[in-house]
Write a sequence for this structure.
């Protein structure tokens, strides 16, 4: 896998493409497949607020649309547009969306200043709802 700080920098660079005219908070994500391919995503806001989508789910949608189903890491960078990232962890909806296809021990790297905080998906979403509940 690409080194972690490089992945965090990719997520941070993606923030430039964020569409966030309402909140001014730009978020970028870089999702890595188990083959090492990287899919970027950004938050896309909408005048009808609930229609917006987060960077993490945007990256997941791009990857799944390209036929990818197995992932090994995600980096997220968020903060006020044009400023350093301030430790935006994925929201609850994104944690749940990622848990559908990503391993529980997958690293979630969250940009903060020049560095990053590291979590696992299961540390951010313990007791997740999964397909076994539908049996
Ligand atoms: Zn989210």
């Amino acid at each position: 896998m690409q080194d972690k700080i490089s992945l965090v920098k990719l997520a941070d660079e993606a923030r430039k493409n964020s569409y966030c005219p309402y909140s001014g908070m730009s978020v970028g994500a870089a999702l890595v497949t188990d083959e090492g391919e990287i899919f970027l995503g950004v938050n896309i806001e909408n005048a009808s607020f609930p229609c917006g989508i987060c960077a993490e789910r945007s990256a997941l949608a791009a990857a799944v649309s390209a036929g990818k189903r197995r992932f090994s890491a995600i980096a997220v960078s968020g903060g006020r547009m044009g400023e350093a990232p301030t430790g935006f962890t994925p929201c609850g909806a994104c944690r749940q969306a990622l848990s559908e296809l990503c391993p529980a021990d997958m690293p979630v790297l969250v940009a903060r200043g020049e560095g990053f905080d590291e979590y696992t998906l299961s540390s951010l979403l313990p007791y997740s709802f999964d397909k076994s509940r539908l049996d």
Q: What stands out?
A: The longest helix spans residues 4-14.
